[in-house]
Design a protein that fits this description.
It is a single chain. The chain is α+β, with helices and mostly antiparallel strands. It has a single domain, classed as 3-Layer(aba) Sandwich (Rossmann fold), CATH 3.40.50. About 15% of the residues lie in helices and about 35% in strands. The protein is built from two helices and six strands, in the order βαβαββββ. The strands form two sheets. The chain has a four-stranded mixed sheet with strand order 1-2-6-3. Strand 4 and strand 5 form a beta hairpin. The longest helix has 14 residues. GO terms for molecular function: tRNA (adenine(58)-N1)-methyltransferase activity.
C-alpha cells in the first residue's frame, strides 16, 4: 500500500498488516479493520500516553480486534571497544509506544480478558 490519506481509501480485507504512525490513529481503526484479513495484525506507534489511551479504547470499542497490547520503546546506546562492552552513560528514556492487536474473523466474539476484582471490591449482598 502506498503512503497516503487512509480515510479516502476503500478496502475489502486484503492486507495481512496495517501499521499506523500518525497523529490521530484512533480515527483510522475502523478503516484498518476493513483492510485486514481475519488474523491480520494492527500495529500503531504513538508518542504520548493520551494517544495510547485513545487508540487502545478505539480498538476495544470497534469489537473487531483482540484485546490490544502496548509496550514502551526505549533507546539506549551501547559503548563497545574490544571486550569492554557497556551501556552508554546517557540514556533517552522514552521514545514512544507500540500498540498491537489481531483482527478477529467476522461473527467471532472478542475474547474478554479475565481480571481479578480489586482488593477493595466486595459483593453487594454482604
Amino acid at each position: 500500500m502506498d503512503v497516503g490519506v487512509l480515510q479516502e481509501r476503500k478496502f475489502e480485507a486484503e492486507y495481512d498488516r496495517v501499521i499506523l504512525d500518525m497523529l490521530a490513529p484512533w480515527e483510522c481503526v475502523e478503516i484498518a479493520s476493513q483492510a485486514l484479513v481475519p488474523g491480520g495484525v494492527f500495529l500503531c506507534y504513538v508518542a504520548t500516553t493520551t494517544q495510547l489511551s485513545r487508540v487502545a479504547e478505539a480498538i476495544k470499542e470497534s469489537g473487531n480486534f483482540t484485546e490490544p497490547e502496548s509496550s514502551e520503546t526505549i533507546v539506549r546506546g551501547w559503548h563497545h571497544e574490544g571486550l569492554a562492552v557497556r551501556p552508554q552513560h546517557r540514556m533517552i528514556g522514552h521514545t514512544g509506544f507500540l500498540t498491537f492487536a489481531r483482527r478477529m474473523a467476522p461473527g467471532v466474539p472478542v475474547l474478554q480478558r479475565r481480571r481479578r476484582p480489586s482488593k477493595g471490591s466486595y459483593d453487594l449482598s454482604d
